[in-house]
Amino acid sequence: MQILGQIFTPYTLPLTELYLRRGRTLAFSISPSGFRKNFGGGNLRHWAKKEKRNAVLAVEDGNLATGILRMRKVVEHICLFKAKEDLSEEEEKDMLDYLYTTQYQMCGIIAISLGHISDQNLEQYTHAIFIRFQTKEDLAKFYENPFYMQVLKEHVMPYCHGFMNLDYESEVEDDILPIFRKGEEFNYGVELVLLLAFIRSSLCGPAEDAMTSLANLTMQFPSLIVQATKGANMDTIDNEYTHAVVVRFRSVDALKIFMNSSEYITVWESKFQPIIQKALSLHFSVDPVGTELM
Questions:
Q1: Can you give the pLDDT at residue 31?
Q2: Does the pLDDT value for residue 22 go beyond 50?
Q3: Nearest to 262 by CA among 49, 45, 42, 48
Q4: Of 193 and 36, the one with more pLDDT
Q5: CA-to-CA distance for 210 and 264, rounded, in angstroms?
Q6: How would DSSP label each residue in the chain?
Q7: Is the distance from CB of 101 to CB of 289 less than 8 angstroms?
Q8: What is the mean pLDDT of the segment spanning 30-34?
Q9: Is 0.90 topped by the overall pTM?
Q10: Which of 18-22, 27-31, 119-123, 221-225 shows the lowest mean pLDDT across its residues?
Q11: Which residues contact 288 (CB under 8 A, 6 or more apart)?
């Protein structure tokens, strides 16, 4: 933690009724109820009571007495793209491997996940990549990095078109595993990417209230969610979406259970639908890729 303290500036956040297992991040997940037809709904709290996992207060050593959870700021990058229809399995593997192993060739990247999108979507995006950076300066250097530009030119652009990028600043728990997304729990699961376009007039009030309502709900269910982050788009001029959310669910079933719960549906329909202009919800399975340097 001494090394991390040199590259991050931590701050504290008061704890309310936060029921999380140690090592989880303050976070939430939201998405249109696109899974409702394929998976039964129900009461999320009733399901959670049947879980054998015991949720305890997630605080760092020494924070229990003060009721304070230490948080750190990070910067998240989302890139969505559309692959050509005749993309072969070999070409896809080559593309994903090169993208994944860029983290070993560039400074500033502290976490990465990517994969083939499982959802049918109107935008017709086929693949997604999520990258976490230490600072905004690292993100800026990433966009100009010659090595990454070469990877895109030689191993992505020949197979894909229709790229879209979105960046946002988020907060994670001040612990090495949540920050770097390391540990057994991050080796598998399902990554949900949700892009939201709030009505402009709602951004200062109702939008924040909606986000907070979802946060208060989802923070209570670490048995379903490993980590989730959210934030406002850093570039609202050239991007139609105002906010983004990335959630690592433990499994496809965990994703479906949460999205189809009565509690979640109530929050989405009452808080989000009245002020949402557009929403894009995508998810992909997290599989081991890029085991060797390319």
A1: 40
A2: no
A3: 42
A4: 193
A5: 12
A6: -HHHHHH---EEEE-SS----TTPPS------STTTTTS--B-HHHHHHT--PPP-----TT-TTTTEEEEEEEEEEEEEEEE-TT--HHHHHHHHHHHHGGGGTSTTEEEEEEEEB-S--TT---EEEEEEESSHHHHHHHHH-HHHHHHIIIIITTTEEEEEEEEEEEEEESSHHHHHT-SGGGGSSEEEEEEEEE-GGGTTTHHHHHHHHHHHHHTT-TTTEEEEEEEEBS--SS-S--EEEEEEESSHHHHHHHHTBHHHHHHIIIIIGGGEEEEEEEEEE------S--
A7: no
A8: 41
A9: no
A10: 18-22
A11: 187
Most confident of 7-21, 34-48, 52-66, 232-246: 232-246
Split at pLDDT 50, 70, 90, the class of 44 is: low
* pLDDT above 70 for 34: no
- Give the span between the Cα atoms of 7 and 3, in whole angstroms: 7
CA dihedral 184, 177, 12, 166 (to 10 degrees): -90
Q: Which residue has the tokens 């009505």?
A: 199
Other residues' Cβ atoms within 10 Å of the Cβ of residue 61: 6
Tokens of 32: 């249109």
Contacts 24+ apart (CB under 8 A), 265-268: 265/33, 265/36, 265/41, 267/30, 267/210, 267/213, 267/214, 267/217, 268/30, 268/31, 268/32, 268/33, 268/214
Tokens encoding 136:
């905004």
Looking up tokens 């990028």, which residue turns up?
165
What confidence tens digit (pLDDT) does each residue in 248-281 have?
A: 999 999 999 999 999 989 999 999 999 999 999 9
For residues 160 and 82, the answer to whether their CB atoms sit within 8 Å is yes
